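From the thread on structure requests for the teaching lab: each student submitted one protein with a one-line request. Submission from student K.M.:

"Model Glutathione S-transferase family protein from Thioclava electrotropha, tokens only."
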Amino acid sequence: MPILHWSPRSPYVRKAMVALHEKDLADKVETVRTHADPMIPHEGLMAINPLSKIPTLELEDGRVLFDSHVICEWADLESADGPQLFPADPAARLEAERDEALGTGLLDVALPWLVELKMRPEEQRSEQMLAVYRTKMNRVAHWLEGHAARLTERPFDIGHLSIGVALCYLDFRFDGEGWREGRPDLANWHAGFAERPSVQATTFRDDPRPT
Ligand SMILES: N[C@@H](CCC(=O)N[C@@H](CS)C(=O)NCC(=O)O)C(=O)O
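Reply posted by the TA:
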């Protein structure tokens, strides 16, 4: 069975997990809890992924896949079940992958924001960077509100998946930031996303960290 290096705290892992559920592959992949600490590179993980990041997927034939984009693409190629996450039509695919990049880009803002807030000693915290992260989060949410109709009308793809998971992560870690305020169309679209069985099956959780 393929092995997925996994954590219930990681939004990039959740992106891969939602894809596995959507494609009916979740039972065909074993998850192994791996603690990828951005402050302490993980020797065991780096032996297979030099970036020391999760998700990392070890296939049975010895190939190792990362990052979340590649693992989602593998899931789409591996199984014809569920929605086609990467559309065949070139224009539709470009739009889907652009939106995927926006979702992971939002996570690329949220993760260092969290590190700055929770992991750096208070005296080393940069108020300037905190303001930059908040600005970008708000601009992404604003952009998404303007594109919510498009998200609602087109078939589910990797763009929906990535954006939906990123907004779930804001709920998990940045609840006080209120991304829904003044953005009814986006909030409405996301409420539908949150009802998908793949999303319900993969909720975030602060589990005890492995030693
Ligand atoms: N671009 C990667 C990002 C993965 C990533 O940053 N994962 C975090 C966990 S949420 C990680 O492993 N961090 C450890 C580190 O940065 O060293 C993806 O989409 O999979």
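TA comment: The radius of gyration is 17 Å. Helices lie at 11-22, 43-46, 68-78, 90-119, 127-153, 158-173, 184-194, 197-200.
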